[in-house]
Amino acid sequence: DTRIDELREILRYAPDNATARFDLAIIYYSQKKLGQALQEFETILAEHPAHPPTLHKLLSIYTAESQLEKAVDLALTILQTNAQDTEVLFHLALLYLNLERVDEALQTLTVLVGLDPDHPEAGALLQSFG
């Protein structure tokens, strides 16, 4: 609680401090206060739309919370600034598969294997479609 109070105090004087807000969101998330965490993460994105740590954390949260369309949108946002992020490409391919968007999953896996021919999971998954 002391750390939360410290972060709130920082944000009172510097509401656009993305680092303090991100730390606060992580604390809320670790305390299973998902609503408060999401509110903080979304505030960061409103002020800093390309904040990588927030985008990656929200991608994980939306996936875990079965908000797959939101997760797809975030993955695509991340890939706009880093099209060669193989971790996000693989995550996106899995999201597409879960949404039964097989053609998009195959296309994403093909791009991924083109970037990283030795990616074991992507290669195996792509081969399974034969």
Unreliable segments of 5+ consecutive residues? none
User: What is the C-alpha radius of gyration, as a whole number of Å?
Assistant: 17 Å
Helix content: over 70%
Could you give the order of the helices and strands?
HHHHHHHH
Largest sheet: none
How far apart, in Å, are the first and last alpha carbons?
53 Å
Strand-helix topology:
Blueprint: H1 2-13, H2 18-30, H3 34-47, H4 52-64, H5 68-81, H6 86-98, H7 102-115, H8 120-128
Helix pairs in contact: 1-2, 2-3, 4-5, 5-6, 6-7, 7-8
Outline the structure in words.
The chain is an all-alpha fold. Helix content is 78%, strand content 0%. The protein contains eight helices and no strands. It is elongated, with a radius of gyration of 17 Å. It starts with a helix and ends with a helix. The model has no long low-confidence stretch (mean pLDDT 93).
Summarize the entry for a quick read:
With 130 residues, the protein is mainly alpha-helical. It contains 8 helices and no strands.
